[in-house]
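Question (not urgent): is this output format expected?
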Amino acid sequence: MVILTEKTTISTLVSLAKPINLPASAKTVVKKKNALLIIPDSGKKILLFPTDSDTVVKISLELRSKGLSPLFFNEVGRITKGDLGVEILYTSGLCFAEEKCVWDGFFEEAAKFKNPDDIKKKFQGIDGVNSVSIEFVKL
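Got this back:
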């Protein structure tokens, strides 16, 4: 018999009718000053990604149908890690009924996104990308 002595998660139930506060036990584990809050369109979950950044860069790509391919992800990795030298904080991708796909990527190192027009051109060069938007999400 295996007896678990360590906690695998910290959980708490909160009211959405008032501001949400993280429990003290979570703050001792996280050790970051800020968090990126993401709520997918379904509204069925809320995601928090701890970060020390005051600005997070969101890149949204709209692609033709079936655009979320291994080649697409290789190209995104080449641009983000190779050209820009940034790590992805969070990504999300979704295809809508064979019509189009959308990919969002969030990055912490806003200083590396000094030339948004140049970065847009890099992403627009990926086969299947219809449009690119870059948003600076600030605290």
